[in-house]
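tool=predict chain=A
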Amino acid sequence: MRRWLPVAAVLLAGGFFAVLLLLPPAARGRFGGGAAYLFAAYAQALAIAGLGVALAQAARHRRLAGILLFAAGVAAGLLAKDRVLAVLVAREGAFALTALIAPAACILAGLAVALPMLAPGIAALAGIGAGFLIALNDPTFGETRFAAGAAAAAFWLLLAPLAVLPWAGARAVRIGSRIVASWLVAIGLMLGAALLFERPPAPPPAALRAPADWGRMAGMQRRRRRLRLCR
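tool=predict ok
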């Protein structure tokens, strides 16, 4: 019976979040708005879920350390937002680097899935990044319910694989984790490249560009017609 308790808790929490997401935005409240933000930030949500897959494969002491370090990282990211922003704003172009936090988290989560012994350290980094992004996108300017909803959704994404994966076979988890690791790294690289790549303006098609001597050629055509008429 005790083995079913984590799964039941995860399912109940998942149902609660599903109901919140189905509500209209005005009816969610600030807690539901925070949860909706985290699920909508798909790169960040995928990174946290992938980190949960990594912790599910790690040893028990690493698993507990990873959860605690993630929690501490989220708190540190929330509290350090103003100081980090002050440093970023003081340097030209540095604020744009915040868009790379979620892709970098996906890449690190993929590495953690492939190498579970790295999961606790990566959990701390992912928690700091998640907390900073939650505080950065908080429209309430520090009202705690938005951050609490986003943090609760983040912990559900982290703990759900820990509760569900032990029921799967070891071989299925091993094969599935390799696929998840490659997908996370690929998603992180693609998102990061898309943010860094700037497409140059396309030149107009050649068919729409008149030749430089178009006017001179038209004048010659008119002179030839006049000569023919005189003859």
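Confidence is low (pLDDT under 50) at residues 206-215. Residues 112 and 169 are 20 Å apart (CA to CA).
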